[in-house]
Amino acid sequence: MEKIRVGVIFGGKSVEHEVSIISAITAMYKMDQEKYDIVPIYITKEGEWYTGEFLKDIESFKNMNLIKSYATNVVLMNFKGEYVLKKKNGFFNKVVDKIDVAFPIVHGTNVEDGVLQGYLQTVGVPYAGPDVYAGVVGQDKVFMKAIWEKEGLPITKYEWFYDTEFKKNQDKVLKKVKDLKYPVIVKPSLTGSSVGISTASNEKELIDGINEAINYDSKIIVEEMVENLKECNIAVLGNYDNQKLSEIEEVHAKAKFLSYQDKYIGDGTIQGGAKKFGVKSGVKGSVKGGKTGMPSASKMPADLKPQVREKVEETARAAFKALGSSGGARIDFLIDDKNDKVYVNEINSIPGSLAYYLWEGKGIDFTEVLNDMINIGVRDFKKRDSKTHSFDSNILAGYTSNGVKGVKGTKGKLR
Length: 415
Fold this sequence. Notes:
Elements: E1 4-11, H1 17-30, E2 36-43, E3 49-51, H2 64-70, E4 72-79, E5 82-87, E6 95-99, E7 101-104, H3 115-123, H4 132-139, H5 141-150, E8 158-162, H6 163-168, H7 170-177, E9 184-188, E10 198-200, H8 203-214, E11 219-224, E12 229-238, E13 243-251, H9 260-265, H10 273-277, E14 298-299, H11 306-322, E15 327-336, E16 341-348, H12 356-360, H13 366-386
Parallel strand pairs: 1-2, 1-7
Antiparallel strand pairs: 2-3, 3-4, 4-5, 5-6, 8-11, 9-10, 9-11, 12-13, 12-15, 13-14, 15-16
């Protein structure tokens, strides 16, 4: 049986670029090597696309000049009905490789937020994970909360504004936010992995937090913090038709929220799933350093009362469906542990390390999750392809060089 060629796309112009590399290499190692031929496709911070077997090695990314020297600079396109990687530079733009399905393992702006998905959909290649629309609303916390609020899902009180509003009239924005109760949390609307996030217990800290968040995004959101806070995460696998739920983890952090440092840095070495799985077939070099990354900052299963656990699971399904999500997402919850109140905080459409550890909590192997994600992506592609997206008739056929004059066979006027 011929293997399916999976193009794993990672990197990109995002502050979560390095996290994407860790996630992708973890996934490439754990994919079923008997079923798939894995084609690494790395996007640099400048937006250039490269491919090459040595991009499966995390050590390769310690010297970016080596990648530009030894990997092949390519463009993904639909060429004679095949999805090919063609050499970008040189006199002969030959086909370097081809893929059957794309698997974006990317995080943050310019990649996870629907931009990359839009390109893949334009090319026509099947891909795993969220589509354009789910990517957009899953990345923008303001859009996300507006949809969940309309669906009646429990969320914390919040306000949002643009950076220009704050710069032009700071007092007006502060007055708007004044309706919220301290302490609050300040976030850029579009970033993930806790980048640019801070807490504030007074107006000075709020202003400082807003100025920090503005460095990362033009849209800023300020939320009330939950009292008696317990943070919990759950992963959802599926699409709007069917959803499978992972185990629930209880997050522990040294600070008031789980920071980028907590998630990925720790002792100053690269962390994440790649360390846990070690380096075996298909991945050269070694990955050295401290603990396993995010899983080390959590407790699983979460210590929740049965009715609270049920509410988290019920809300996770509803939140996933409301955003039209697909593939494997992680949904983060804030719980008032004293009053048993559950608030859905945000969705991670393509979470760090694809939240493999949450599935392991239910005894589901990461390889199985990856296989399911690819299959869901192919099914989603077939559904999209079965819908009507264009008409056979060409309304421009009767146009003359003068515009609408001389148009025959059309009734009414074009306005």
